[in-house]
Amino acid sequence: MVSVLVNALFPTLFLTLFLYSHQTKSEDFNSFSNETNFEVSNIAGTCNLFRGKWVYDASYPLYDPSTCPFIDPQFNCQKHGRKDKLYQKYRWMPFSCNMPRFNGLNFLKGNKGKKIMFVGDSLSLNQFNSLACMIHAAVPNSRSTFRQRDAISSVTFEEYGLELFLYRTAYLVDLDHDKEGRVLKLDSIKSGEAWRGMDVLIFNTWHWWTHTGSSQPWDYIQENKKLYKDMNRFVAFYKGLQTWARWVEMNVNPAQTKVFFLGISPVHYQGRDWNQPTKSCMSEKVPYFGLKYPGGTPMAWMVVNKVLRKMSKPVYFLDVTTLSQYRKDAHPEGYSGVMATDCSHWCLPGLPDTWNQLLYAALSH
Questions:
Q1: 26, 121, 122, 344: which one is catalytic?
Q2: Dist CA 320 CA 273 (whole Å)
Q3: Residues 6+ apart with CB under 8 A from 212
Q4: Whole-prediction pTM value?
Q5: Which DSSP string do the residues of 34-53 spell out, in sequence order?
Q6: Among the four residues 67, 206, 267, 292, which has the most C-beta atoms within 10 Å?
Q7: Cis link prior to 254 (omega < 30° from 0)?
Q8: What span is annotated as the signal peptide, if there is one (predicted)?
Q9: How many CB atoms lie within 10 A of CB 338?
Q10: Cβ atoms of residues 91 and 57 within 8 Å
Q11: β-pairing, 258-262 with 200-203?
Q12: Catalytically annotated residue among 121, 329, 342, 353
């Protein structure tokens, strides 16, 4: 039943999934990439900010982690003993145009009185911390307030009335505790009530969809009131994102709220992705500098792209996947204080600062 439904909904993706397994080379999807041009142009005008290279910049990083009060300890790699700092010194340089340098004071003035919310998992926390630190560096003596209650954290820059929010949700769709157990509900977003009234929403999800065994936080997947013990994870991801897309279509007024979706943030546990099969991110000191990342385009990127292309409301795709794939050097590694090996999150200062520079460019456009 599931396979029939999926073949009806998106046969190209379903066929590609089983022919190419979980990853495919980027050159095999040129037609899909071409179809994303309208999303990229929404952000970048006539140039593509997401295609470029990493260059050394002695003026980086954009802030000092020891003076920023908003970094979650697991992202403060220097605090946990990482001695090299080269990973902080790389700037993203697009091939075809200049990316504006982040100006915290301009960001505060341009977004005075506004509410900006990140919605997603710990990668959203990574980006939320980063933006708070980037702004704080511009006005270190300005009054700011941090609050946390249940799933919502916030930083308010009082003088400017700018509020940054983080809503923690691993799947965007609901994960409920029912009589059957923990149920991931692919067609339900009750938590969306907390996302209303924002001027900017930046969504992210993917990493938890892959979890299995003891790290999987649900017992069943539910769709149309029917329970499944399991489901192909890309199929489930697609269905969940469709529910999120319907929520945006029904609840967001583009004249009042700008919506962004952060592209898939890669992991670097498998060195074969950059042609070094005996390695992981551990002790990596420099980015990958090749023209094409050997690991190819993640299948999850294909799913996100397909959902976004079908939406009628404008959603700005922060297509950070490729530029992030190059940054095998920028993970906490063994310096998170939480995980023995962390090749999925990012040190701060670091890569999420570039994600926020791209957000800054989009909001300024």
A1: 122
A2: 17
A3: none
A4: 0.89
A5: HTTHHHHHHHHTTS-TTSEE
A6: 206
A7: no
A8: 1-26
A9: 13
A10: yes
A11: parallel
A12: 342
